[in-house]
Amino acid sequence: MNELSPIETGQAAGCLERPILRERGQREVFCGLTGIIWLHRKIQDAFFLIVGSRTCAHLMQSAAGVMIFAEPRFGTAIMEEKDLAGLTDANEELDRVVARLLERRPDIKLLFLVGSCPSEVIKLDLARAAERLSADHSPNVRILNYSGSGIETTFTEGEDACLASLVPSLPDADDSATDQLLVVGALADVVEDQFTRLFHALGIENVSFLPARNAGTMPFVGPGTRFLLAQPFLTETSRALVRRGAVHLPAPFPLGARGTTAWLRAAAESFGVNESLFDEITGPAEARANKALTHYREELTGKSVFFFPDSQLEIPLARFLWQELSMRPLEVGTPFLNKSLMAPELDALPEDVLVSEGQDVDRQLDRCHAQHPDITVCGLGLANPLEVEGMTTKWSIELVFTPIQGYEQAGDLAELFARPLVRRTRLEV
Question: What is the pTM of this model?
Answer without folding.
Answer: 0.91
